[in-house]
Design brief:
- The protein has 242 residues and is an alpha+beta fold.
- The chain is 29% helix and 31% strand.
- It has a 10-stranded mixed beta sheet, sandwiched between helices.
- The chain is elongated.
- The protein starts with a helix and ends with a helix.
Length: 242
């Protein structure tokens, strides 16, 4: 069977973030204890499903058996569904799920870049832009955490859309994209995201698009990103887990 290179590379990223020796199995799910997992907040259970298999990290050894038995009662595509996972585990809190999409040189769909401007991440205009949008939008997009330059579009002197990426382990360019609420639906997100994606590809990085909103996922698909799976983090209620 031919190996899907994009899927293989994405899986390698997440096994590296697991903080414990673990591999995606041929099918279904592999579970490992990892107090240092970067797949989820400390003390939580992290699930990443990519293709027809998933990996899961739990914070302590005593949860491995419980979570393994519970997860193996579900199909892989249900492991990142909070409702279905909550039916087999005592879930107290949930973060996600978020779709995971990836792009490479072969899949990228060229888009106009000439309108974008490149700014350092702490540029006053970018700071003003982030302050002008709802706080939840600024937090969700992650632009304050980018380590690349920011690629922006302006209307007059004001920034109306921006994108960049954060360097993740495994040579990943984790994309962040934001358009001003009143300027959405005009293709601005695609333009700035294209500039950030091209920059990441030129540096030999793997562009990753992690998103929940349907509109954001449509932008990713328009640029050639391929949705390979999803990520979910849950906190298990320790009292019910015994």
């Amino acid at each position: 069977m031919d190996v899907d290179p994009l899927l293989a590379r994405a899986r390698q990223v997440w096994t590296g973030l697991a903080g414990s020796p673990i591999r995606f199995p041929a099918r279904q799910v592999a579970v490992a204890a990892s107090a240092n997992s970067s797949m989820c907040p400390p003390g939580w259970v992290g699930v990443v499903a990519l293709g027809d298999a998933a990996i899961c990290t739990v914070p302590t050894d005593d949860l491995v058996g419980l979570v393994t038995r519970a997860c193996r009662t579900l199909p892989v595509d249900a492991l990142t569904d909070p409702d279905r996972l909550s039916a087999v585990l005592p879930v107290a809190e949930v973060l996600g799920p978020a779709a995971l999409a990836y792009c490479d040189d072969h899949r990228y769909r060229p888009h106009r870049l000439q309108a974008t401007e490149q700014l350092p991440v702490h540029h006053p205009d970018l700071v003003d832009f982030l302050a002008s949008v709802p706080a939840e939008d600024a937090a969700e997009c992650g632009l304050v955490e980018i380590t690349s330059a920011a690629y922006v579009l302006r209307a007059g002197t004001a920034i109306v859309a921006a994108a960049g990426y954060r360097h993740w382990p495994g040579r990943v360019a984790h994309l962040s994209v934001l358009t001003a609420p009143r300027r959405r639906g005009r293709g601005f997100a695609r333009t700035v995201a294209a500039a950030a994606t091209v920059d990441g590809l030129a540096k030999g990085l793997l562009p990753q698009w992690r998103a929940r909103p349907a509109a954001s996922r449509r932008v990713a698909r328009a640029l050639g990103f391929r949705e390979l799976g999803a990520q979910l983090s849950v906190r298990v209620d320790g009292r019910d887990a015994r």
